[in-house]
Design a protein that fits this description.
Blueprint: E1 5-9, E2 16-21, H1 25-42, H2 47-63, H3 65-76, H4 80-104, E3 108-109, E4 116-123, E5 126-130, H5 138-149, E6 153-157, H6 163-175, E7 183-185, H7 193-198, E8 202-208, H8 211-223, E9 227-231, E10 236-240, H9 246-258, E11 268-274, H10 275-290, H11 310-325, E12 329-332, E13 347-350, H12 357-360, E14 367-373, H13 376-383, E15 391-395, H14 399-409, E16 414-417, E17 436-437, H15 442-448, E18 450-457
Parallel strand pairs: 5-6, 5-8, 6-7, 8-9, 10-11, 10-15, 11-14, 13-14, 15-16
Antiparallel strand pairs: 1-2, 3-4, 4-18, 9-17, 12-13
Length: about 450
């Protein structure tokens, strides 16, 4: 029998923070109907009103940063300084769409034989968002800001372990002046999502999460002929060429691997290093990773907190041990610390090859896989030897060379040169292959959940 409660646990201690009663089927139905009614009024409200309220959300995010960042850190273990940066990023995306939504959705006139012909962008209705725990505010806001500014309503089914974050976001929109039922949090388990997708109120679904979750939700939405956007896993390759600035590359690579405890879809995961600089890169990279401080995530001096749960930590460790068992070399870490909590140290694996979990699977934690490549051609081949295609990076002093690799030769939704992969409200974000489909952010993101309507007047 499914549990009637959602449990939030502090991953640094394993102690329960809060238990939340789930919504009953009757409560869910009422929330859906109220959201639908609210959205119908909201879509007539106009961009000026929506923009004013979205700017107020940004203001309240910054005013409440200490409280919101503490909730994030307590529920999923991210270092509080990173949680504060996450809140600031949410404020920025709110401001971005408050300022730009109207321009992104302005009618586009097309020259045809008609007296008038143009493309209009209209809201779809109420959108269901199924969001993960790793960026519990940012993942929500990069969906909610454009969707609400487009005139849609939003229902959030958040990961069970960050229910406190979910309810805090709902409260934030309400106290910022948004209609009370326009953005609501559904307190449900994963097994209860299907019936929500089936409900006639829901017009589209967006999910950020695992490949398995994406396939399940996409299949259910497909049965109902409802549009989906999927941002799934990643195994981002970072190519280090022989002419790269190694000291700089090492700093960027380590930062990308360890951000959010390595629990990020677009964190660097596979470091593909050409043979001439492999030994030097390994030595410098191990030293950089070893220098990072793991400890109390509420202490702003620490770089790495616990993993989000002991279950996730143990799964990560099994992947590491299985890779070592198949011949990978442990250059750093790979030992679970004694004591309570979901701790796992910075870990570096060398001699990673096909057939190992560190090569084939997404490694969601502070574990770096170093893979040797013979040359540029081999490095590109290895980078593309993955079922994922979210982000990638290339490090080289020859910008034209690196640009060609990034633009034309790497299979990914984003490819950065001499920098770590990250999402930016001004740029489209998403993947290919098992990393999903559709795009968030930029003008691409706000148009995903609109009816792109042709109007033709003779």
């Amino acid at each position: 029998m499914a549990t009637k409660k959602l449990i939030s646990t502090d991953p640094s201690t394993g102690k329960i923070i809060e238990e939340y009663q789930k919504h009953s089927p009757a409560e869910v139905e009422r929330i859906l109907l109220d959201a639908s009614s609210s959205q119908k009024t909201w879509q007539e409200s106009g961009f000026e009103n929506r923009s004013e309220l979205m700017m107020k959300v940004a203001e309240n995010l910054r005013a409440g940063v200490e409280n919101y960042s503490r909730i994030i850190t307590k529920e999923m273990g991210k270092p509080v300084k990173q949680a504060k940066a996450e809140i600031e990023k949410c404020a920025v995306v709110c401001e971005y769409y408050a300022k730009n939504a109207e321009g992104f959705l302005t009618n586009e006139y097309i020259d045809t034989e008609a007296e008038d012909s143009y493309v209009a962008y209209q809201p779809l209705g109420v959108i269901l968002a199924i969001m993960p725990w790793n960026f519990p505010f940012w993942q929500v806001f990069r969906f909610a800001a454009p969707s609400l500014m487009a005139g849609n309503g939003a229902l959030l089914k958040h990961a069970s372990n960050v229910t406190g974050c979910s309810l805090a976001i709902e409260d934030l929109f309400r106290k910022s002046g948004f209609p009370a039922n326009l953005f609501r949090s559904l307190k449900l388990g994963g097994s209860e999502v299907a019936s929500v997708i089936e409900n006639r109120v829901i017009k589209a679904v967006t999910l950020t999460g695992s490949v398995q979750a994406g396939k399940s939700v996409a299949a259910k939405a497909g049965e109902e002929l409802k549009k989906t956007v999927m941002e799934l896993g990643g195994s981002d390759p970072y190519i280090i060429l022989e002419d790269a600035d190694l000291d700089y590359a090492v700093r960027i690579c380590a930062a990308s691997r360890l951000i959010n405890g390595g629990q990020s879809c677009i964190a660097a995961k596979r470091f593909i290093v050409v043979k001439p600089v492999l030994e030097s890169f390994e030595k410098k990279f191990v030293a950089e990773m070893k220098d990072k401080k793991m400890g109390d995530p509420m202490d702003e001096q620490n770089d790495l907190g616990p993993q989000a749960s002991e279950t996730l930590r143990d799964d990560l460790h099994r992947q590491v041990l299985a890779s070592i068992g198949k011949g990978a070399e442990c250059l750093l870490g790979a030992e679970i610390p004694a004591g309570e909590g979901a701790w796992y140290p910075p870990t570096v694996l060398g001699r990673v090859r096909p057939g190992m979990p560190a090569y084939e699977e997404e490694i969601f934690g502070p574990v770096a896989a170093i893979i040797e490549a013979d040359d540029e051609e081999d490095a590109v081949r290895i980078a593309n030897d993955s079922r994922f295609g979210l982000g990638a990076a290339v490090f080289s002093k020859d910008i034209d060379r690196a640009r060609n690799i990034a633009e034309n030769r790497i299979d990914a939704g984003s490819c950065f040169v001499n920098d770590l992969v990250r999402s930016d409200p001004r740029l489209p974000f998403g993947g290919i292959g098992d990393s999903g489909y559709g795009r968030e952010l930029s003008y691409f993101g706000i148009r995903e959940f609109t009816n792109i309507k042709t109007v033709y007047i003779k």
